[in-house]
Structures are given as C-alpha cells and as structure tokens.
Amino acid sequence: MTALAPTRRAALAALLAAPALSPGRARAQGWAPSQPVRVIIPFTPGGTMDPVVRIVQNLLTQSLGQPVVIEHRPGGATVIGTQEVARSAPDGHSMIMIANSFAANVTLRPSMPYKPLTDFAPLVMATVVPHVLVVHPSVARDFAGFLEAGRKPGPGFAFGSYGIGTSNHLGGEQFREAAKLNATHVPYNGAPQAMTDLIGNRLQFMFANLPDVIQPAQLGQMRAVAISAEARVKELPEVPTMAELGFPLVLSDSWFGLILRANVPAPARARLEAAWIEALNRPEVKGRLEELGFAVLARPGAQFGEEILRYTKTYAEVIRANNIKVE
C-alpha cells in the first residue's frame, strides 16, 4: 500500500489530536447538555441505522439529563446530513451517525462542502455488520474451489454490490484484485435484487451483510465460503475469516459510528463518548442489537479515528486503482 500523503497525515493528526477525558474528569468539569441532543441520521426513516440509535435513545436521555432526539436528513449521498452537523454550533448538542461511506466519500466526492477529515471529531464506533463472501452453489463447495474457478480464463464471474462506491463494492474490488480473480462488477440499487440474482446464478459471488445470508445459506440457495470479520461468528461458525484464508487486508463490512464538530470542547465530547459507550455495553442493549445482526464495538473516539483513516486510505487506493466514479 502507498504511504499517506502529507495532507492525509495532517488530517490524521487533526482527527486524533483532541484529547479524550475520562468520564469522571468530564463530570468534574461540570459539562452537561443544556438542550436536546440531536443525533442526525443521513438516510430516510426505517433504515438500518435507526435501531442502533433507538435502542439506546432512552438510556442516553437518562444519562445526559436532556432528551436525545433523532433527526433524519437524507440526500446527497449523506452530504446533506453531514453538512447540517458541520454548520451546527460546536457545543456538543449535534452529532451524526456515519457509515463506511464517510470514508469512501473522501475520494469519491472530493468537492464536498466540508472537509471530512478535519471538520469533525470521532466520538464512538458503535457497531459493525460483517460481510460474508457468498457464492452460487454451482460455483464451488469451498473457498479454495472458488479461487480456482474464479481465476480461470474466459468470460469470468459477475459479482454484485449494493451500488457503486458502497462498502461491499469496494471490498469486492479489493478482493478481486488481491485474489487475481477474473470477475466483473455489477452494481445494484440495494441488497434485495442483488441477492435474488445471486440465487438465480446471474451473479456468481458477492459480499453480503451477515443477517441477509444466514437463511438462504441454510436453505442451500447460496454458499458462504468466507467472512470479513476479526473472528468467526456464532451464526456461521464453520465459515473461516478472510485472514485465516490469507487475505487479512480485505475490508468489507458495514460499520456505524458517531462524529461531531471538531471544535466541540473536550469535556463535552468525553461526556457524550462515555454515555454512548456505557449504553452500548449494557447487556440488554447488546442482546437486542445482536439479534438484529449487529456486533457491538463501543470503541472510543481515538480508536474510531484510527479506523476512519484506515478505511479512508484503503478505499482511496481501491477507488483510484479501479477508476471508480459516482455521478
């Protein structure tokens, strides 16, 4: 992989520079919200982000002493919602839940009306949904057989994604290149039609969200041959990780996290970070989110910032190597 450019290194420094305070120090300095706290979701209501916030909403309200309200600001490939936070007062009362697209947009959409890596501070990396590499049953019985079939000359395989520039598109392109597969990307507008076409063998493989593949894999409609996760998962314990199979650098998953204005005072950020982490780590919260297919991370802002930069760098390399463009 190429080294970070000087501007990207400066962005990393800015993203990680603000100090994190312990919850005790934050409370000792007396910061508390003085009005409702907004959590902006940059998608329409009913999406996959909603339950992550709704499940902890009451706990956050109790912890912070002010109502925590959800505000949907869809449009512009998440730019509209993110710009709303960029324009908000830097007082800790506005934050936005972001996903992998935040890191991809740094390269895909260089003319955004804000600087994603310097205008915001990471707060909490909340959850992740691993992606499973699934293949049509006629393709192969296991990962080794899939690689052998996918490297053969000829017309090659078609692999699907949820759209150009989505996390499973970029993960698929990264894997295709790393594994030297003979394959062509076919974008879809979301998961349902892509899954239907995989079952119908119009696609031969794709990375798909873990909850979406469990039932069709059990029914034999597709075969799970690898998972892009730090460890094997209890839902598919027999499926090895990409790292086990020799591809530790492949990134294909769907994570959610919170960011806010970069110049929000450190005591405010520390209080908010502590409230989120405490709520996400409650056993009943983890249980409900895991039932929905989320793995709870509850990682503090410093770690989240490192992850944002790791994904940003990887996505930039994939996007440029494959000349990926969005309208």
UniProtKB/TrEMBL annotation:
<dbReference type="Pfam" id="PF03401">
    <property type="entry name" value="TctC"/>
</dbReference>
<feature type="signal peptide">
    <location>
        <begin position="1"/>
        <end position="28"/>
    </location>
</feature>
<keyword id="KW-0675">Receptor</keyword>
<protein>
    <submittedName>
        <fullName>Tripartite-type tricarboxylate transporter, receptor component TctC</fullName>
    </submittedName>
</protein>
<keyword id="KW-0732">Signal</keyword>
<dbReference type="InterPro" id="IPR005064">
    <property type="entry name" value="BUG"/>
</dbReference>
<comment type="similarity">
    <text>Belongs to the UPF0065 (bug) family.</text>
</comment>
<dbReference type="InterPro" id="IPR042100">
    <property type="entry name" value="Bug_dom1"/>
</dbReference>
